[in-house]
Amino acid sequence: MEKEKFYITTPIYYMSGVPHLGTCSTTVYADSLARFNRLLGKDVFFLTGTDEHGQKVAEKAESQGKTPKEFCDDLDKKFKEIWNILGISYDKYIRTTDDYHIATVQKIFQKLYDKGDIYLSKYEGLYCTPCETFFTESELVDGKCPVCGREVKKAEEEAYFFKLSKYAERVKDYILSNPEFVKLDATKNEMLSFINQGLNDLCVSRTSVKWGIPVPFNQNHTIYVWIDALPNYISALGYLSEDDSLFKKYWPADVHLMAKEIARFHIIIWPAILMALDLPLPKVIHAHGWLTQSGVKMGKSLGNGFNPFVLCDRYGVDAVRYYLLKNGPILGDAPYDNESFLKLINTDLVNDLANLLSRTSAMLVQNFEGKLPKLSNNLQEVDNNLIAETISMVEDVKKYMDKLEPNNALQVIMKVVRLANKYIEDTAPWKEKDNVERLGDILHNLYFVLHSVAVLLQAFIPQTAEKIFVALDSNDKTIESISLDYNKQIEGNLVTKTAMYQRLDIQKEIKYLEVDSIKENKVEQKEEKVEETKKEFITFDDFEKIEIKVGRILTAEKVENADKLLKFAVKIGSEERTIVSGVAKHYEPEYLVGKEVLVVTNLAPRKIRGIESAGMILYAFNEDETEFYFVTPEKDMTDGAIVG
Predict the structure, then answer these.
(1) Which CATH number is 545's domain given?
(2) Which of the residues 194, 197, 336, 365 has the least number of beta carbons within 10 Å of its own beta carbon?
(3) pLDDT tens for residues 524-564?
(4) Residues 582, 478: one domain?
(5) pLDDT tens for residues 205-242?
(6) Global confidence as pTM
(7) Cα(195)–Cα(199) distance, integer angstroms
(8) DSSP secondary-structure letter at 181?
């Protein structure tokens, strides 16, 4: 039997700056839907990528002394890096500079021209450079761009036009006759209002912009953004190529996901283009709200996007994913502030989820040596109620995910987690130590809840779900395992006492985040300037875990665009390592070559400014860092010598 398909897309992100937390919200949102539909056994295709052409990109590249392609290549690495960190499970990543996309766009342009839906004329209008969009006088807000609020300027040039007006009524009729097509009623009404005001034909080429795809039959013209960008959803599937098997399999898209500022292009222009190509329309378009700071949309062009690299590195990937899915702009706008982010970690992930796993695993280890006991035939009403709530959670989560509402799906899951914590208080297992059967039933039921929660959390916070599976020795990760039959068959699994999330000191963390806050590309700052509280004592066993060896510096050089960072090549015995340290203000690189240093060699590698640093060089310094010295052996030692 052929699997049901599910094709979901994010917008392709415009290459005007590094990804920020608002950018991440859409992609994490789409990823949760892709993962959940895979969990349901569907054949999922998940597309994301980048939009790289246009005047704004060319101007930014020139300002940095780069070609547009070099500029885009550098930014593309940042996008792929954050998607990798966040565990984004895309099936294909498209760039509008990809050769196959360029070829498809030119074929589409030619096809529409041959059909008479594209014609040559002259454009006179009001143009917003940051948004790369023409607007009519009536579309402006207070005389400025209705999207970004910036000044617009009059522009006039020869251009090709797409006959958008020809398809206005067809698009309107489609929206009205397909109530599921646009997710939000407010968005739908806004789009209908646009159409009712009258649609002008759409400018689809420029002569003044050279960074883009040439019109195939007129090299003086560059294909303008919407015929260039929007067809990515079909070019990625091989539309109009020799191998169009993916297109035949997955089109039309089940969900196009984006933020609301590009709703008009996806709900009016894109359907019109598809109609002109005689192609079916996507099933659902959801233009969600904005992630905001102080009431203003996070955006690359506005420069107020919080740095996701900082949050992921300090608090963990799943904490960021959880916040964006639970408190993010799933429907309307959603404000971000550091305190609400940190409090959500403490309440949901620490107090509720981690606490449930810690208590359950500890009691199983203490009372049953970690071996899950068999479920008896003497369950009480309180047991059956918890099991019933756990099993019914699946349908509720499905219902909300079908409605594209992962925030409400997470509410359902966390409700069961809280019921399980209350179940512990109600059943008081610590009082049942002499009643082994009753104690076993309680802990078995708690295990089943944790297993079931982990199965569903694979769609939302997959690293956390995997940690729960490992702790429970649970191998069946399918949604079918959330059942009465499975609950009766799982005795004997060997549980490990596990703690996941640690409680945060909110005020300390707020102070930390205010240092790094919204400054883009400042991830390395947290390596260099973090206010420390009093350290707790460690045990001798803790100290024994630290491996320190003598190393010899082979080379030293400054890290580009980083005032504090030096990059070292350090020889440690038979191996050579790259280590980054924040000591550039204290030493000239040439002075350090040949020096013996002490290196912590079993520290997990971490990336600083895109450089993987594999270890830590030890220094001694006074409180205000006016005196700063390498820690070195008393006498010359062979590199690789062990320090203990």
Answers:
(1) 2.40.50.140
(2) 197
(3) 333 333 333 344 567 766 777 888 999 888 888 888 877 78
(4) no
(5) 999 889 999 999 999 999 988 899 999 999 999 999 99
(6) 0.78
(7) 6
(8) S
